[in-house]
């Protein structure tokens, strides 16, 4: 799932659906893994 997050603020968990929160967690896990392996990525 590609979440549509442009223009949205993360103020509370209630602002997002379960699927969007799962997307956040999956993406953060992938970024952490890439960072630990020193793999360049387009985010941050």
TrEMBL record:
Keywords: Transferase. InterPro entries: Asp/Orn_carbamoylTrfase_sf. One of its GO terms (biological process) is amino acid metabolic process. GO terms for molecular function: amino acid binding; carboxyl- or carbamoyltransferase activity. Gene3D superfamilies: Aspartate/ornithine carbamoyltransferase. This is Aspartate/ornithine carbamoyltransferase carbamoyl-P binding domain-containing protein. It comes from marine sediment metagenome.
């Amino acid at each position: 799932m590609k979440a549509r997050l442009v223009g949205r603020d993360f103020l509370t968990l209630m602002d997002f659906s379960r699927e969007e929160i799962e997307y956040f967690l999956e993406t953060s896990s992938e970024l952490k893994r890439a960072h630990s392996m020193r793999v360049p990525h387009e985010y941050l």
